[in-house]
Amino acid sequence: MNSLTKLISLCVPFERRKEAAWGGATFNGEQKCWVAQLDKLDALLPFVPYRYRPDRKPPYIRPWMVPQALWGFNLRAFLAPEDWNGIRKDAYARSGSRCRVCGGRGPQWPVEADEGWAYDDERRVHILKGVISLCSDCHGVRHWGKTMTEGRQDTALAWMAEVNGWSRSEAARCGDQAMKQWHTRSRHTDWQCDISWAIRTYSVVPIKDGETLARELNRKFVQQAQSRIGVRAGHVTYIEHLIGER
């Protein structure tokens, strides 16, 4: 098949299926998703995974490592379970339960919710920008540190290279840059969390003990990472960056 006539999976919300059909997409009953030819996406751009959009350039997916002091500081900690579930399920629905980056789906769960954070390094504020759906492969790249502690870095590196159209060395360089950035940010322990996007967008109210829960989770995650270093001695050259170099 010519690369331009390749069929790609689209991220079509159920309520916008007619819009997708008008734009030229067809529904694949076997895969249970909307598809379109790569050379016929002009009318379908809102539904096109990032890696195939003509207005985007790589990296489409890259490591985005959370400083150690912020491990556990997420919406799951700060919100009531029903509020977090509502936000993540809305992300799934907006993408038609497909990965927003590659259009794929995971083997166990079709998609997983990924919180997108920006960093104000001068004021040391962790700012929530949105929540999107990712497949497990793309999510593994985003959570690079966790992936490495679990010994899955080789698979994630290959996937990062494939999605971005990079060589393995280019993907490795991106991972190294993310690690260096993580070191710089993890030297500080006074980071603050800004979840105003969720409050503004979904009218949710943070729970009273959210920060206490986040700090408890932080201690738990740090201990888990430390224990994995001991168990996975063969991976210490990767993981020592996470804990040993402080």
Mind explaining what this structure looks like?
The chain is 43% helix and 13% strand. It is of the alpha+beta class. The chain folds into two domains: 3-48, no CATH class; 68-243, no CATH class. α4 packs across α6 (153-164), α6 packs across α7 (168-186) and α9 (210-231) packs antiparallel against α10 (236-243). The longest helix has 22 residues, at 210-231. It is globular. Mean pLDDT is 91; it is low at 231-246.
Low-confidence segments: 231-246
The tally of helices reads: 10
Portion of residues in beta strands equals 5-15%
Largest sheet: 3 strands, antiparallel
Assembly state here? single chain
Radius of gyration equals 19 Å
What is the 3D form? Answer: globular
Sum this structure up briefly.
This protein has 246 residues and is α+β, with helices and mostly antiparallel strands.
Any key phrases for this structure?
single chain; 246 residues; alpha+beta; 2 domains; 3-stranded antiparallel sheet; 3-stranded mixed sheet; 10 helices; 6 strands; 43% helix; 13% strand; globular; disordered C terminus
Topology:
Elements: E1 7-9, H1 17-22, E2 26-28, E3 33-37, H2 75-78, H3 81-94, E4 112-120, E5 125-134, H4 136-142, H5 144-149, H6 153-164, H7 168-186, E6 192-194, H8 196-202, H9 210-231, H10 236-243
Parallel strand pairs: 5-6
Antiparallel strand pairs: 1-3, 2-3, 4-5
